[in-house]
Structures are given as C-alpha cells and as structure tokens.
Design a protein that fits this description.
heterodimer; A: alpha/beta; Rossmann fold; 6-stranded mixed β-sheet; 4-stranded antiparallel β-sheet; B: alpha+beta; 10-stranded mixed β-sheet; elongated; binds adenosine-5'-diphosphate; binds magnesium ion
C-alpha cells in the first residue's frame, strides 16, 4: 500500500492554561490519490491535528511521515521548504494577501520555491486559475473579490507547486451551499484527473459522504 | 538560499500601500542626516577658518633666545661647597643677548634639511610709533617678506598693499591696521618711529597688516629685515627669531627637541603653542555629533514604531507567508528590507538636503573687519561626511528595524491562523 502521509502515535498536550491532552495516540495514513475527510464535534482536535500534519506545529510526540520520509524533528527551515514544495493548505478563512493581485497571490509559493522562471510561474498560475474558472480575475486586487472567489484563489495558490497532498481546514465552512458544492467538485476533479491526495476537515455531512473515506474524531482520538 | 526578488517585492508592496507611514519614517531620517551634514560642514568650516587664523600664522617650530635663569648657579661650580646644601635667594635671569648666536649658519643648515619646507629669519624690535606728541609703543618686525608669504598665509592679511610693494620699498612699512586707525594714516603716508634708544626714523606706509586679532593689529607692524637691522644699528647677522615650516607638521616636536639641543636655543613647536586650540575644535565636533545622534535616535524610534505597527497590522499576512513556506528568516528579511529602504531613501534625501543647506550657508554674506579674507560663512565640503551620514542612516534604521523584524520572525502562524 502506497501512503502519502502517515502518523504513528501522535500525542499532543496544551499546557496552558492547564494541562490538556488534546490529541491521543493518533495513528492513521492517507493513501496516494485518496480523498479523505475528517469529521468530529467542535473541539475534538481536528484543527490541531491538521496543523501538525502540515508541519506548522512541531510541539508533539510521535512520528509523522510524508512520502515515507520522517518529518518529525527536522529543522524549521527544512520544514518551511517541505511545506512550500509538497503541501498545499486551504484555510476556512481564505487568507489571501490583500494588497497583491489574485495572480500574484497564486504565484507567491512558486516564487518562493524558485525552481522556475517568472514567465513559467505566471503561465502555471494562469493555468490553475483557468482550471478553477477564475482566470478573468487574475489582475484584480485580492481584496476586491467575493468570498467564493477568494476560496478558489486560495485553492489555486495551494496547487501552484503541484503538492503531493492538499489539506483543508473546513474550506467550505464559510461558503453558501452552491459555492461549497463547487469547491467539492473541484477537489473531486483534482483527485480524478490529477491523482491528487486530499485530506479535508469538514462539518458538512453531505460533503463528507461523497469522499472516499471519513475519519471520525472524538475527544482527541480517531474512533473510526 | 534567499530569494531576494520575492522578498524585496513584498517589502516594496508593503511600503507603497503604507505610503504615509513610510514617508513619515523616511522624513525622520532625512531630518537627522540633513541636520548632521549641515552642521558638520558648517562647524568644520568654522574650525578650519579659526585654525587658519591662528595656525597659518604660527610657525611649526619657532627658534629664539629666552630670558631665563641659568640652570646651574655659579655656587655649584665651586668645589668646596660640593657636599653642602646651597640656598640661593633672589635669582636673576642670566644676562644674554636676544640675538640668536650663529643665526646665519643655522638658517643655511635648515635650508638643506629635506624635512624643512623653509626657514625665515625675523628681527623683533621694540619701538614707539610717533603721532604728534603721542607715543604708541609697539613692535616692528623685520622680515624677508617674499619668503614669509611663500611659507605662511601672511599674504592674506596684507590689505591695501602687496608683499612686492614692501620688498621694493627700502624704508617701507606694513602698518598694523589698528595702529593706522588710531593715527588716521593711510597708504602712501609717512609714519615716524623711534627706537628705545631715541633715534627717529620716517617710514613709508606701503600697506596694512590685518590679522583679525586686535591686540596684534594694534601694536605690530612689518618692515624689511635689513631696514629694521639698520634702525636698530645692528649688523646683518642680527636675528632674534627663526620661524620654520615643515613639510610634515607631525615631525615638529621631535625636530624642535633636536634643534634646541644642537644649537642651544629655545625651540617651541606648534603643538605646544596651540594645545588649547585643539580643545575648541574637539568640543565643536562633539556638539555636532551629539545633536546629530540625538536626531537620529528620535528618527530611529519613529522607524521602530512604524515597523511595529506595520507588523501588528500584517500579522495575518505573516502567518500566511509562513504557512505557504516562507521561513522565519524570509519574513525577518522582508521587514528588515523595509527598514533599510526607509534608511536609504531617507538618508539619501538627507544628504541632498544637507548639501543644499550647506550651499545656502556658504553663500550667506558674513563680513567682519576682524577677518579681511572672509566674505561669506565658511563651509567645508568633504565627501567623508556624506559617507558617514549614509552609514549613520543605515546603521540607525538597521538597529530600529531589528527588534520588530525579529518579532515577526518568531510569530507562530498556528496561533494567528487559529485566531485565538
Ligand atoms: N492554544 C491552545 N491552548 C489551549 N487549548 C487549546 C489551544 N488551541 C486549542 N485548544 C483546545 O484544544 C481543543 C481542540 O481544538 P481544535 O483542534 O481547534 O478543535 P476543532 O478544530 O476540532 O474544533 C479545544 O478544546 C480547544 O479549546
Ligand atoms: Mg477547527
């Protein structure tokens, strides 16, 4: 079985305001090309887990593997680079750089990666925008577009470096049902056409049911 | 592996969208650097002028005979009192001539020394200027005027006349300007002088000497060396002072010591003569730097505040940048670049403003009878000040930018994104 992401016995505590065991013995894996969703009550630790998986949070015990490589314990500069190259992340709140244009926002991670020329990056970015049907917004300021459009720009940005996995923390949580449906179809298409692996936290039962697998969390544990 | 084009692009965008704060911060630096350049140029101009006023008229080494008591009193030559304690009351100075013994050979010797730019003989004579029944006491200095003007800035202080006029007029005199005013004399007039002995000589005024130092101008005049020797009734080797100019002023103390031993004359060097003068220059410089650094510290606090505010506003952007793979160092460099751009632009502008203000001061009329050669305020232009100014600007913005940008570097994106 080919895994893109794997965890072994991840545990995390918050020590402030008092000791709180937020993640308990998390061991699971995401297969290559799998579209998995995480569900669970508010406060069950879904976001906390996703921040660890995305390498932004390093304060935990256990092991995290990305493409079979151990990520745990690496230097933060190396983690930054991994995040840049291999992981796409979409937040609940779109989080674009509001002073930059849509196109510049999408290009930013690729410019940081610095593996392609400016023109090649721009071409890639335009192609992602076209795929998400928002290429006509390319030269708009990011602060001037609607919420649904912003979320699609954020997805384009997450995809620009062709990551091995796309993670999302309630990416449809702030969208109306039409836009939420739209985002789901984009994810589905990415899985089917590009073979992308996805791990999406959601509250939306309809959304979760249509994914390959639902991971249920409760009180910091994976229960199914 | 730092990707500067991305970092600078983000820094530039931040600065441009926050134009007002950027301009305020940059203007603070501009003000500090502009003030520094203006002040240092003006202060140094003043220092140079005052240095010139005294130093250019002061020889590097001055040889003369000093009236002083003998170091060994006669009693100590007497063997019988060798082992006793001798007490001598009321010591009188030794009877010596003011004349420098062997002055001409010394002059020849000095002219052959390659460290010596030139040596000029002088004869300083006490005389009285006669104006009707009034006698004004003063000094008449016999000089070799052409050598004197070659070696010092004396020529600058001759007004209404030329060195050549003195040289070509056998009984000519360059009268002290204060004396001329007191006696209502003008160029071409004759002035009577009398020696201490009572002999009276008429001299023809060929110009005035105005040093800017009132006590000098009120008592001192110049004539040809030969003329003064004749007035004093002395031979051609009667010389009381030798002034030496060196090619390298720093050799003055050692050479003075050597000459003093070698020729048994008193030799003072310029550092001894002008030790107190340095103090004035140093204090003026100190004031300049104190004021400039104060202004730059104020400007630095401005930059610090503005960057702190900016980073607070951009907290989310910083979290996003880190989430999409920018390292802490990248983020710090983004904000450091902003500080340095502010420093560079503000500092550069400050240099320009400082230069313009210096030019304005340079062209302001400044006339005083004490300084005949000065018509406008003195300003010194020195590329070094501009280099120091720019370094100052960059240094202060670097220091001001460091703390806020280091804070940005440490921001934990998870805390921001979680929104708690
Ligand atoms: N920085 C923190 N310090 C202390 N407790 C925290 C912190 N962040 C989150 N928590 C707690 O951890 C639990 C899990 O939070 P989270 O992962 O955000 O849950 P979910 O995303 O599943 O709603 C919650 O009870 C929350 O209150
Ligand atoms: Mg959550």
């Amino acid at each position: 079985m080919e895994y893109v992401l794997e965890t072994k016995d991840i545990n995390k505590h918050f020590y402030k305001p008092k000791d709180f065991h937020v993640l308990k013995d998390i061991s699971f894996a995401v297969r290559v090309g799998e579209f998995a969703s995480i569900m669970g009550k508010s406060g069950s630790g879904k976001s906390t887990l996703l921040y660890i998986l995305s390498t932004m949070d390093t304060e935990y015990t256990g092991e995290l593997y990305l493409n079979h490589e151990l990520v745990t314990g690496r230097h933060h500069n190396e983690l930054s680079r991994m995040r840049n190259k291999h992981i796409g992340f979409v937040f609940q709140f779109h989080y674009l750089l509001s002073e930059f244009t849509v196109l510049e926002n999408v290009m930013l991670p690729a410019k940081k990666l610095n593996e392609k020329s400016h023109t090649a990056i721009e071409r890639d970015a335009m192609q992602k925008l076209e795929m998400l049907k928002i290429d006509y917004l390319a030269h708009q300021r990011a602060s001037r577009i609607s919420g649904g459009e912003k979320q699609r720009v954020a997805i384009a940005r997450a995809l620009i470096n062709n990551p091995v996995i796309l993670m999302g923390d309630e990416p449809t949580g702030n969208l109306d049902s039409h836009n939420a449906d739209n985002v789901f179809h984009i994810f589905k298409k990415l899985k089917e056409e590009e073979g992308l692996s996805l791990l999406i936290v959601t509250h939306d039962e309809d959304f979760a049911k249509r994914t390959d697998r639902i991971i249920q969390m409760e009180d910091g544990r994976i229960i199914s | 592996m730092i990707n500067w084009s991305v970092i600078l692009n983000i820094a530039k965008t931040h600065l441009v969208t926050k134009m007002k704060s950027t301009a305020t911060a940059a203007l603070g630096v501009t003000f500090g650097i502009g003030a520094y350049i203006t002040m240092i140029s003006f202060m140094t101009g003043l220092n140079d002028m005052l240095d010139g006023l005294v130093l250019n008229q002061t020889p590097h080494i001055h040889l003369y005979n000093e009236i002083e008591p003998s170091e060994t009193q006669p009693i100590s030559l007497y063997d019988e009192f060798e082992n006793s304690m001798n007490v001598v009351h009321s010591i009188r100075p030794r009877q010596i001539q003011k004349k420098i013994h062997n002055a001409l050979p010394i002059l020849n010797y000095l002219k052959q020394d390659k460290d010596v730019k030139g040596a000029t003989p002088q004869l300083q004579a006490q005389i009285f200027y006669l104006s009707g029944s009034i006698e004004l006491s003063g000094a008449l200095i016999g000089i070799n005027v052409m050598e004197e003007t070659r070696l010092s800035s004396m020529g600058d202080y001759i007004v209404n006349g030329t060195p050549e006029a003195l040289k070509n007029t056998d009984n000519g005199i360059l009268l002290g300007s204060g004396l001329a005013e007191k006696m209502s004399l003008s160029v071409g007039d004759r002035v009577q002088i009398s020696t201490v002995g009572g002999a009276i000589f008429p001299l023809k005024i060929v110009g005035f000497y105005q040093s800017g130092v009132a006590t000098v101008d009120n008592s001192q005049s110049f004539a040809n060396l030969k003329t003064v020797q004749r007035i004093m009734g002395e031979a051609q080797n009667y010389i009381t002072d030798i002034n030496i100019r060196l090619n390298d002023i720093s050799l003055a103390p050692t050479l003075a010591k050597r000459l003093q031993k070698q020729f048994m004359v008193k030799a003072t060097d310029i550092n001894e003569a002008n030790a107190q003068f340095e103090t004035g220059s140093n204090i003026r410089n100190l004031i300049t730097y104190a004021v400039s650094i104060t202004l730059l510290i104020v400007a630095g606090f401005g930059i610090y505040n503005i960057l702190n505010m900016l980073i607070y506003e951009k907290m989310k952007d910083i979290a996003i940048l880190k989430a999409i793979g920018f390292s802490g160092l990248d983020v710090q460099l983004i904000f450091m670049s902003q500080a340095m751009i502010i420093g560079l632009v503000g500092g550069g502008l400050g240099l320009i403003i400082g230069y313009v203000l210096s030019r304005v001061i340079d062209n302001l009329a400044f006339e005083t009878s004490a300084l005949p050669t000065i018509t406008t305020y003195p300003v010194s232009y020195n590329l070094g000040y501009y280099v120091v100014g720019l370094v100052f600007a960059l240094l202060s913005t670097f220091v001001a930018g460091w703390l806020p940008s280091a804070k940005a570097r440490r921001i934990d994106p998870v805390i921001i994104i979680r929104g708690t």
